[in-house]
Each structure stands twice: as C-alpha cells, then as structure tokens.
Amino acid sequence: xxxxxxxxxxxxxxxxxxxxxxxxxxxxxxxxxxxxxxxxxxxxxxxxxxxxxxxxxxxxxxxxxxxxxxxxxxxxxxxxxxxxxxxxxxxxxxxxxxxxxxxxxxxxxxxxxxxxxxxxxxxxxxxxxxxxxxxxxxxxxxxxxxxxxxxxxxxxxxxxxxxxxxxxxxxxxxxxxxxxxxxxxxxxxxxxxxxxxxxxxxxxxxxxxxxxxxxxxxxxxxxxxxxxxxxxxxxxxxxxxxxxxxxxxxxxxxxxxxxxxxxxxxxxxxxxxxxxxxxxxxxxxxxxxxxxxxxxxxxxxxxxxxxxxxxxxxxxxxxxxxxxxxxxxxxxxxxxxxxxxxxxxxxxxxxxxxxxxxxxxxxxxxxxxxxxxxxxxxxxxxxxxxxxxxxxxxxxxxxxxxxxxxxxxxxxxxxxxxxxxxxxxxxxxxxxxxxxxxxxxxxxxxxxxxxxxxxxxxxxxxxxxxxxxxxxxxxxxxxxxxxxxxxxxxxxxxxxxxxxxxxxxxxxxxxxxxxxxxxxxxxxxxxxxxxxxxxxxxxxxxxxxxxxxxxxxxxxxxxxxxxxxxxxxxxxxxxxxxxxxxxxxxxxxxxxxxxxxxxxxxxxxxxxxxxxxxxxxxxxxxxxxxxxxxxxxxxxxxxxxxxxxxxxxxxxxxxxxxxxxxxxxxxxxxxxxxxxxxxxxxxxxxxxxxxxxxxxxxxxxxxxxxxxxxxxxxxxxxxx
Length: 720
Ligand code: ADP
Ligand code: ZN
Ligand code: ZN
Hints:
alpha/beta; GIY-YIG endonuclease; 20 helices; binds adenosine-5'-diphosphate
C-alpha cells in the first residue's frame, strides 16, 4: 500500500473567527504579507489578494495566531483557490530552501515555478477562465477530493508485470536482459535505503537508460512516484514512447506525465495537477519539473547530469541537478545522477565517497566505442573547412550506405561578413558583437542576424566604410557547411538540424524521425544532435570547429568541450561496426583531445581537478556573481564598486572568508543597448559564502534604486 499523503491539520477555529495568513507573493520585496481570511484555509493553498492596486495570486505559507500589525490595516483575501490540493510541507520546504540558497524572496520562488495560469488572477475571473473546469471547481468539491486523496486509489502494483496484455501487445515493452554491469548497478540502487546520491558513470551507449528504467520500475511497483529529468525537450518523444510502453502495465495509461516548456498551458496544468494529486506516478520532464509537487516521491533520476541546461539562466537561477540532490536528501530517498561525462562537482563527490559510484564500462550493444582520430589541420590543405581525411571518410560511409554526422557548434551561414579591402566587419547596432550571416531558410537570400539581441538587418550592397562591393563571408556555420557538402557529394541526402532549421513546432521531431528512418546520409548539426539520440546507422562523426571552444574565456570551457565532444562522438557506431570520430584541430596535443582519443574521462577529470585545486576554482571554491545592467558601463561598474565597498564598511559576516574581486565589464559588454558588468565573490567555505550573501543582498536593492541599475545575484554560476 502507498503511504497516505499527510494533509496538514487545521486547528479548529470557531466559525466567523478571522484567520491571519502569511502569504508569499511574487513581488521583489523580502518577507511574507499579512492578510485575513474568514473561511477555512490551510498552508499550501493559493489565494487571490489585492496588493496595492493589483490583484495577485499568492501561496499561504503560515497561519498566525495573531496579526503581526494593526488588524485595521490588514486586507481580507479576495478568494481562496481550491482547484489544487494544498502544497504539501515537503514542497514548501523545497521552495524555502531554494529561496534561501539562491537569495530570493520566497514569493519569487513559489509563484514563478507554477504553470503560468495557476499564478494569474485573470485565470479565475469571469466565465472564460483559462483553466476550464479545473479552476471552476468549487470548494466543497475540492474538500471531498482532498479527503479522497488521503487514501488514493492504489496503482495496480501487485499484478505480475510481464503478463499484462499491454506488455505483450507492444514488443518494446519487453525489457532486454540486463548485462552484468547493468545488473550490478540496478541491484545496488535497489539496495539503497533512504537518501544516497548515486553517480552512474556509463560510457556512451552503455545502456544507462535501461538502468534508470529498472530502478524506476522497482520504486513504482512499491507504490511510490518517480521523477526522471532529462536536459532537453527534443529528447523526450523517444523516451516518452519507451516509458509508456514499459510502464503502462504497472501504472496505467494515465500514470505517466510529462512537463517541459514546449507544452501548452493547459497540458502543463494537467501534468502538474496529476502528479500533485498522485494520479500520475512517473514524471518525465526538463529542469522545471524539479518543482513539481510529488507527494509520494520515491526516487529522482537526473539523466546527463552534467548538462548545462539543468541551470536556469534567468529569474531564479537554480540548478535542477543540485536541487534534486537536496530534495532527495530532504525526503530521504535515492537520487541517481547519470552521465558519460559527469560534472567535476559530482565526480569529486564520488571520489570523496559522498556519492556511490556505479560504472558501466562497455557498450550495451555488440559494438565497441568508436575510434577517435585527431586530424592536425596545421599541415593540411583544407577544402572549405573540411580536411581530406574527413572528405574521404564521408565518401567511404556513403558508399557503404551508412550515415555520417558533421558536428559544428555554429549556426548560420558564416559567423561574420567582412570587407577584404578595409577590414570592415558586420556588427550589431545594438550590441558589442558581430552579426552572423544567415541564409534565409529555403531561399538563396541572406540576412544579418545578431544572436545576442535578435536584431536582423539586410546585407549591405557595398562596404559601409570604403564602398568596396566585394563583401565576403568569413568562416563557416552549419548552413555553409551543408552547402559545401552538397557540392562535394551531390548524390547524398543531406539534412541540417540546428535552432534555425527546427524553429517550427514539431520540425525537430520530424527531422530526427527522418534520420532514424534512414532517409538521411549526412547530417549536419549543432549540439542539438549530440544529445541522447540512439542513431542506428550512424558510423562516422566529424567535428569541425572544436578549437573555438578550447580557448574560450570561461574556466569551464575545457570541461564543457570534453563533455560535448564525448557526447557527439558517442553517436558514432552505436549499432554499426567500426564507428569512427574525426576531430579536426590545430592543437591535437591538448589534454582534452588526448583524453578523448583514449576515451579517458577519469584521466581527464583527474587532470582538471588538479588544475582547479591548484588555481582555487570550483569545486574547490564556491562562487556567486553579482551582475549589473545600466545604460552606461560606468554606472554598472560604479554600482558594483559601491556594493563591494558596502560589504567592507558594513562589516558583513564571514568577510575574511570571502574574496571579493574587482568589478569588470562582461565579455560582450553591450546587449540591446544595455551595458553590463559583473563582480565575483568566492569562498572555500559554502556556509560562509551563504552567510555573506544573505547579509549582502539585503543592501543591494537600495543601492541599485539610488543608482538606477538593474542587478541580479547568481549563486553557483556556470558561466563567468
Ligand atoms: P546511454 O544512455 O548509456 O548512452 P542507451 O541507454 O541509449 O545508452 O542504450 C544504448 C543502446 O543499447 C540502446 O539501443 C538500448 O536499447 C540498448 N541496450 C541497453 N541495454 C541493453 C541490454 N541489456 N541488452 C541489449 N541492448 C541494450
Ligand atoms: Zn571596406
Ligand atoms: Zn544585437
């Protein structure tokens, strides 16, 4: 049987006696807000209140015995919303932790993580509420439902799983027999009792997914819920179909829910409320799903745990991976982090024994890992960016009827347009960056795009500086590479997958489907193609501009490059013999490339961790980044300087344990006419940094207000 959901018990109040509520609202002010309410209400319910002249949806955080200010000043809530059960205490704890750790007011965590209509008063006004029947449910009905929720219908968990009719109807539902390494991992996870982070380090194609599914199956069969997080939406259709086929016999047709930003509002609410009510037992989702209320959560899986898309890059800048570990700890359940190239943070935890490391060292199919060849481009006559070796290899695969992938992390036609006479280069009028030459999809017309602000402009007929009419594309992006390949291999069917070719809804799925169906010989793509896909006929991967990532300014650049190349290399030869990866580089002796050649993640991680330790960088230090935006760079820098001075003068806690660096302009200083600067603070002691940040962030709103600067504070930034 499942555990009953604990519903907080409301102290009996005589009818008519006011309840004093402390409510979290999505406003940039610290603290909770006092309201009164004359009906039954409990923490975790949402309410509509008036705030200034606006109406807002808020979350009731506490009931107070007495008002904390003059009762005459306290407004009464407009409406209590009963369309969802109250958020359970563990959800409230998660939100509270995220607010404290990421230094945001509680309301700026609790409300933004909800599906948008659930936090808009307009959804609940008038007849045409956007929520349909969900929002129109009245209180009585909601109460009944809540009672029912205390003893939910158990999933039919005791039935034998393999004999269910759905399972035999669909052949994919039959799990393959596990390989010994997989079995060891599944057994180790099943043996866990309570909280324990597991780092599942499995080479590409080792069958990590199968391990997740077996582990999840055990948890689902025990009547608990599972959260399975993946980095990207374009991965979910394949996996979703597999999950449905595998688990329907155990959890029923409605037992799976998905959650990601590509869903329509209605679908998102549907998933959200089904997991919150315990109707959905398995949630598959992107980073946002870490905030889904799951009253019977029994395990969390984070696939490709190193992936930067687990980090939210605006608003509440949380790491869904880190929150997953916290949430698992709070609920005392296992959390499985899987990757072929774990983040150095997770790897270090495993090295120190904080995480249980399980390894899958062999590919699950009969194939070996691909051979990695480094082609030194310094001594080569390149043809439009392609080495003779790569061209020959592409030709060979084509002749054998195998697919190839040409990977290039740069979309568009060419990164810049330039004038050969005077050296003019195309740049964005709104940003301090170049504009990228793009071919208009499906036509031979060109435009200039800014990838930072979205600006688009026409291609000038002549150089704006010297009037020369010979403007030339410099370098190459995916569109241009696709064009060259079509010239070189006129008989080949070539497809391109990048953010431009997949702009239309559903087009990414369609393109991937045609690759999987064998309708494509050569695929050109950005990192969009590198993740997760299990291509059956792909034998060769060629990597074009890897070096451009090698010397990026960020100290995480080599780590990220290694992960990306390992991922993309891992697409080669998953089900074919003689998989091969050709990396074109001018720096083949670099440790990143040498480690890739040997498939040696562990060696690379050891090398990187030594370097990080020697230079005092994460994971040997904890960081936070204060970023300021203003019309003028000077303003932004002055704000940061003042913020730094305040820290010294006000004698903030842990000052001597926290290094405050100088304010500096961002590498791309101006975006859409706004100039940006940042200030890094760092400590080897996480609690010290936290104590400092909490005190410091209390000062910032006032300084920013006086100096008319927008700011944000990011804890554990991924990019500096
Ligand atoms: P990873 O996520 O580790 O890169 P996948 O989970 O995509 O690898 O698995 C790679 C391939 O191996 C898939 O086609 C999968 O169906 C197959 N596979 C996984 N486990 C087994 C197994 N035990 N026996 C046979 N095939 C397996
Ligand atoms: Zn010129
Ligand atoms: Zn721009």
